[in-house]
Amino acid sequence: MLEIRNLHARIEDREILKGVNLIIPPGEVHAVMGRNGSGKSTLSYVLAGKEDYEITDGEVLLDGENLLDMEPHERAAAGLFLAFQYPIEIPGVATMTFLKAAINSQRKARGEGELSTPDFMRAVKTAGTELNIDTDMLKRPLNVGFSGGEKKRAEVLQMALLQPKMCILDETDSGLDIDALQVVSKGVNALRNGNRSMLVITHYQRLLNHIVPDVVHVFSDGRIVESGDKDLALQLEAKGYADFDGAAA
């Protein structure tokens, strides 16, 4: 599914990713945990194609295709989805309008026909019910005036409708109370299947109590320094990241 080989990236004169190696097979959920400033979110931005970053070495393959040769919209059409830590507001664009445009844009890029309005409405209703999203929320401009929980539910709704094969969740638990976290996690877990992989980026164990990963990776100073099963997250919660700082040197 996703293979990252010796990935190096910098912004201006600062190197942030310093040789990331990671393989996520189809159907697996991998978690990346690390300190603030370790490079976790940079990894998500580089994978999605954020233009501020310069790739200085390495490659990233999604089902054998080189993501780094693609523009951001091409990566999305190829099946990559990034859920942002802080989803942006888009005044003047209704959430429903945005969702339909996103779906049909990707379908067009893949050579598929546009989704009819009745089919689109049924898909939104089905996915929205799972996430406790009502129609009034969907009529509002995208993310404008949304609470933290509403923004994250709107992003998981996008994920449910677009059906990506590789999902990157960048600190999805940020700004969520426990009730919202449970709703969002339930929506994410409903999308887990043998053909869809996920990369969950987080600081804290609490998210991984709800979205249980197959593999946990420790990120330090721009690279993965340790990998293990879900118990590694418990170890981090108990001891912190100090034990892994030397491994990044």
Q: How would you write the strand order of the largest sheet?
A: 6-9-10-3-11-12
> How is the biggest beta sheet arranged?
6 strands, mixed
C-alpha termini separation: 29 Å
According to CATH, what is the class?
A: Alpha Beta
CATH topology: Rossmann fold
CATH superfamily: P-loop containing nucleotide triphosphate hydrolases
CATH architecture, by name, is 3-Layer(aba) Sandwich
- How much strand content do the residues show? 25-35%
General form: globular
- The assigned structural class equals alpha/beta
Give the overall average pLDDT.
Answer: 89
Instruction: List the helices and strands in order.
Output: EEEHEEHEEHHHEHEHEHEEHH
Number of discrete helical segments: 10
- Extract low-pLDDT stretches: none
GO molecular function: ATP binding; ATP hydrolysis activity
Pfam families: ABC_tran
Domain ABC transporter: 2-246
Keywords: ATP-binding, Nucleotide-binding
